[in-house]
Amino acid sequence: MRHWSRYVGQDRRFNRPLQNAYLGPEYTDEEIQGAMRDADLVFQRFDAIEEEIAGLLSKNAVVARFAGRMEYGPRALGNRSILYPARDPATSTNGSTSN
What contacts 2, CB < 8 A, 6 or more positions away? Predict the structure, then answer.
């Protein structure tokens, strides 16, 4: 891409350091809740989210977490996550893997 940008004379546009990994869109709580309602999904909002997630995982629940802007990069930062208890053998059978 850098070579292409030099060809069209826009080299400086792609030659800036990455300011942060949050490059995706961000949604308000109202937008998220509206989308969940439209999809007929059950959801709850908690002030002490970490404690609630830990409790759910200790009961072998699967938790979807959606917060802030989407991230870019080789490692998830947690804003878009599906969490599950890795101690369950069913989560790593049939050739599937998890990070």
Answer: 11, 14, 15
0.90 cut: is pTM over it? no
Q: Tokens standing for 18?
A: 């990455």
| C-alpha–C-alpha distance, residues 39 and 54, integer Å | 26
Of 5, 21, 11, nearest to 73 by C-alpha is 21
Residue 92's contacts (CB-CB under 8 Å, 6 or more residues apart) are: 86, 98
Which tens digits make up the pLDDT trace of 45-64? 888 888 999 999 999 888 88
Q: In angstroms, what CA-CA distances link 70 with 28, 38, 40, 65, 85?
A: 13, 21, 23, 12, 23
Question: Domain locations in the chain?
Answer: 43-85
Cα(10)–Cα(17) distance, integer angstroms: 15
